[in-house]
Each structure stands twice: as C-alpha cells, then as structure tokens.
Design goal:
Length: about 400
C-alpha cells in the first residue's frame, strides 16, 4: 500500500462485531476475564487499548517502522525516550530544538544526571568535538525550529552508528509524508502529533516509531511502566486527523512555497527562511532528503520589536498563536512566545531576534493568506514597508 492508502487503512480493520469502518473509541480502563488470567489479550488500558493500538499501528506503517508508541504529548514521548538511558549519559542535541525539549533537557533531565551538548549539526566536525565516552544518544530535528536549518540525517546516522550512538529524529515538522527518518538510518522517529499529524489544533499527543525489535520491547516496557500513554479519545482524534495527512501536507507545502516567494520579494522583509527557496543554504540537501519542503516559514523583518508587533497585530487570516501544523494559518513571535524559555544569549546566537517571525502556513486559499500578510505590511511605517 502507498502512503495515502496506509494512512486510511493500516491497522484499521472494520470493527469485527458491527463492521464499523472507524475504529471505535474504546473508553474502558479494564476488560472482563473468563477465568483468572484467561482474557482476550486486553487487560488494562494503560497497557492495551484497541483505539491506541490502531493509531500506533498506522503511525508505524507510515514511518516505515515495525512498532509505534503513542503518548499523552510530544514531550511525554521525549521523556519516555530519555528513560532508555541511565544517569550519567551524555546526549548530543540539535542547537535549535523545540523550546520545550530544551527545557525538558536543561531543567529536568540535567537534574537527573543526564548531560547535554547542543550542536549545530550542519557541521559534522562539531559532532565529533562534542562526543564523550558517555555519549549514547543524538537527538535532532530537521527542519529545525524556528530557523529551518536542514540536517543530513544519513550522514549524521553514519557518524553516530560508527560510535555506538543511537539517533532519535523529531520528525514533527516534516511528518512521514515528507521525510522518513528510519529509512534514512535513524533508530527512532519521534513526533508531537499535536501538530501536522493530528492536524486540526484540537488534540495533544506524541509518538515514537522504531524498527528494531529490542528497542521496541524496551520502549513498550517504558511506555507502560512510566504510563504517559495517549488516551482513547485523543488516539481516535489523532487517527482521524492522520487519515488526511497526505492531502493536507500537499496543500500546506504548495501554499508555503508561494507565501515564501511572496515574502522574499517584499521590501519590508530582510530574510526568509524556507528550505524550498533557492536562497536557502541547504536547498539541495532538503530537496534530496525531503519529498517536499513543508509548511513552516520564518522571516526577519526590517526594523525591531515595535515593527514586529505592528505587523503581527495587523496581519489578517493568520491567528497570532503558538503551535503549528493545523489547517489554520498561525503566526508568532518566537522570542516572546514559543522560544521565550530559551536563554536570550542562545536566542541571539541562533539569530532569533526581535524582528524574527515564524509562520505555520495553513490550507486556506492562497490569495487570502497573501492578502492577510499584506494587511500586516500595510500597517508598518512607510520607511519600513518601502525600505528607504
Ligand atoms: C510541539 C513540539 C514538541 C512537543 O510536543 P507537545 O505535544 O506539545 O508536547 C516537540 N517537538 C516539536 C518539533 C514540536 O513542535
């Protein structure tokens, strides 16, 4: 089966009693047994739930893995993944990972004895200089958030595996429709399904998909032992969103390409960050590693905080909100919003200035999106809008 078909059918047989074509929401904590220990294979929902299993099976098929695990949130998935490792482990992470992942690493996991190095993985030499004898995990996102750098997953995996280091790729931005980390050599593909996979900004969730049986067994144990599982209702909503991932992503990508080109040509815009633009330093790598370039765009305006505020307050159609990946377009100010928990000096190093803005381009009509952005530009002082 191809991707579009798997999204609708993988692990989603009609329900055997009634033939219902949708996997029901099995809202039950427990399952009746015929005799002590004689049961259907389902005992307790933290461990076994048919709705969650359907989501997990479908995600595993789409990521070209063998086992999927669904969690209560993306960060619940990351926390559970960290528990594969012992205190004292050194982890190399991307330098502009999701702000919440950085907070989990620096303010929770670091206290539990994990050590982290944050590295710009566009330069493989930096990986080698960060490596210690205790390095066991490399954790990366590509495209990165919010500067949309692209990391070469195949090259990173070759390097990591030569040193016995596991690789976990947070594939939230690309989704398996655009990029399949396991097939590029990664050991784990991790998701915040709250974003594109759910796709409708109405359900929080996370996932991990693996290929290796031993790793799968260890994660199954941890998912149950830690207990940060996806609940049946969230699993249902996520699975419903997942069915349309391919068609949504096609439109996200088509809209984003046109919006990026519009922004790049606008005099009030200093720089546009979008892997689908020829001006992106890793355009060629993105074109090789991804099937399309995604729905996320960042830009830097001419001017400072005042101009950014004016622009963000006046933009039409785009909601000023955190998060990303839903059908509706969102726009936000990373320095004040999503990346406020990142230390100011780190933000400065990454280039997340006061005039840095991130867009999650939705699937509305392109012309409405352009007109909405034009409203924001029109509100800017003339000298900025015309860049005199
Ligand atoms: C949102 C996000 C997360 C965290 O996911 P939650 O579901 O909010 O816990 C992790 N990684 C990336 C790239 C994200 O965008």
């Amino acid at each position: 089966m191809r991707f579009e078909t798997k999204a609708i059918h993988a692990a989603q047989e009609p329900e055997p009693v009634t033939g219902a074509v949708n996997v029901p929401v099995f809202l039950t904590t427990t399952y009746a047994q015929q005799s002590p220990g004689v049961h259907t294979g389902f005992e307790y929902t933290r461990t076994h739930n048919p709705t969650r299993f359907a989501l997990e099976g479908c995600l595993a098929a789409l990521e070209e893995g063998t086992r999927g695990f669904a969690f209560a949130s993306g960060l619940a998935a990351t926390s559970t993944m960290l528990a594969l490792f012992d205190a004292g482990t050194h982890i190399i992470a991307g330098d502009d990972i999701y702000g919440g992942s950085a907070r989990l690493f620096n303010r929770v996991a670091a206290r539990q004895g994990y050590r982290f190095s944050f590295v710009d993985m566009t330069n493989l030499d930096l990986l080698e200089s960060a490596r210690t004898p205790e390095t066991r995990l490399l954790f990366c996102e590509t495209p990165t958030n919010p500067t949309l750098k692209i990391f070469d997953l195949q090259a990173i995996c070759d390097w990591a595996h030569a040193h016995g280091i596991l690789v976990c790729c947070d594939n939230t931005f690309a989704t398996p429709y655009l990029q399949r980390p396991l097939s590029l050599g990664c050991d784990m593909a991790l998701h915040s399904t709250s974003k594109y996979i759910g796709g409708h900004s109405d359900v929080i969730g996370g996932a991990i998909v693996v290929r290796d049986d031993v790793l799968g067994e260890r994660l199954a144990f941890l998912q149950n032992a830690i207990g940060a599982v996806a609940d049946p209702m969230s699993s249902f909503l996520t699975l419903r969103g997942l069915k349309t991932l391919a068609v949504r992503m096609d439109r996200h990508c088509a809209n984003a390409q046109k919006v990026a080109e519009f922004l790049e040509a606008h005099p009030a815009v200093k720089q546009v960050f979008y892997p689908g633009l020829l001006s992106h330093p890793q355009y060629a790598l993105a074109a090789r590693q991804m099937d399309q370039f995604g729905g996320m765009i960042s830009l830097e305006l001419h001017g400072g905080l005042a101009e950014s505020r004016t622009f963000l307050e006046n933009v039409g159609v785009f909601f000023l909100a955190e998060s990303l990946g839903g059908v509706e377009s969102l726009i936000e100010h990373p320095a004040i919003m999503t990346h406020a928990s990142v230390a100011p000096e780190v933000r400065a190093e990454l280039g997340i200035s006061d005039s840095f803005i991130r867009l999650s381009v939705g699937i509305e009509h392109l012309e409405d999106l352009i007109e909405g952005l034009e409203k924001g530009f029109a509100a800017l002082p003339q000298r900025v809008a015309a860049r005199q």
